User: Fold this.
Amino acid sequence: MGHPLDKAALDQLFDDAHTSNKWRLRDVPDELLQRIVDHMRWAPTSANCSPARIVFVKSQEAKARLKPHLNPGNVEKTMAAPATAIVAYDLNFYDYLPKLYPRADAKSWFAGKKAHADTTAFRNGSLQGGYFILAARALGLDCGPMSGFNNAGVDAEFFSGTEIKSNFLCNLGYGDPEGVYPRSPRFNFDEIAKII
Assistant:
């Protein structure tokens, strides 16, 4: 059904992609942010549970709300980014399973089973966060994902009164090469994987 991507595509998604820490003065249109979500939503999650929830912080007012919850080392680059995605997950994702997985009573697999539901929400929300980064890169954006922020503060500021919890932040835009650190080492195949 599929075919291997060419080297240029693989380089853009993986091999040449770096975390961006500085940004060019170039806007990221709302339509492009919508396209990221339009692509990431098709990638698989267990029972199509789709717990990811995204808030795109773009306006100066929204950035002012986010700023107090950032670790000091992440303030400057986040305030300079054209957009910052709060990648979150909904602990009550199972309420939507009658729509998302109509072939079975999947809601009953999670309702009233908090530990199982919470683990499923976090795992699949994280999986969707990875899809989010790949979708953004595929559309020509650079990404600066990070976990250096106060989750409880962000949750209170942006998700008050809900069961939505922040997972990580991802700055988005067109990166300035001066803000890219040298590539850090990675494990070789035989250090982290085996075929049995």
